[in-house]
Amino acid sequence: MTLHFRSIEEAGAERICRLLDLTEHMAAVGRRPNPKVPALRGKTVCNLFFEDSTRTRMSFDLAAKRLSADTMTLAVSSSSVNKGESLRDTVETLDAMGVDVFVVRHRTSGVPWQVAGWTPAAVVNAGDGWHAHPTQALLDAYTIRQRRGIANDFSGLRVAVVGDIRHSRVARSTTEILQLLGAEVVHVAPRTLLPPASDVATTSNLDDVVSEVDVVYMLRMQRERMGAGLVPDGGEYSHRFALDERRAAALRSDALLMHPGPMNRGVEMMVDPAELPQSTILDQVTNGIAARMAVLFELLGSGGIEE
Prior knowledge:
By secondary structure, this protein is of the alpha/beta class. The protein has 10 helices and 9 strands.
């Protein structure tokens, strides 16, 4: 049976903990003068991105190369998809070229599961619609673990996820992994940007929690996925839910400030996070390479990671 990495729920706690430990090893590889190992030599990773991406696509590409895998990236804008080729035909065509892992990003929820039915290759979900973004969740959890100096038990950790929860696959997957590891999560958003049903605590008052939590995780508004009228016009959203200078000053000195990117400066971020010692945003980018190396190695690696 082929092993995939499509959601946090599907992976389960034991596997997530193994991947976090493996991410630690991959982060050490990344700190070497020559951050490359032959672990996936002879393997081929295909990045199949049907949505725009900078961080996720580039970090998957670099992760595969650091493991010595061959890489293929489908440029959808110049592919036969624009001639009417179906997703299934595209996958089967690429599979015939000898792909070992498909890294799939698509605007429609569930596509990574469909792709897995059309190929014997492993499938990694790099974001599907509103549904899931498990490698982002993995790198987020690892960043918290790294910065807080803790192991894989997040008990006692309080995390506020702030912004467009309803349309955010990052919010969903990162909430799942944090709860899986024992953290307490609260969603902070206007009622119109909360999911219709959830077992997560919610509030619409950021000021009530910003000084009380260990992690503040800011989200951008997913305007490409929302209808009109879900958020207030003008600056009201920013007034109520943005991290401004006053709220930044209220952050605990040992708190962490996180954001998956891209940031909308002047909307959810009214301050420059580079000026805040609590910011982990660039750490998240760096750790994204290690986390994706860990996932690819788990799916394909048969040897060690030493040079």
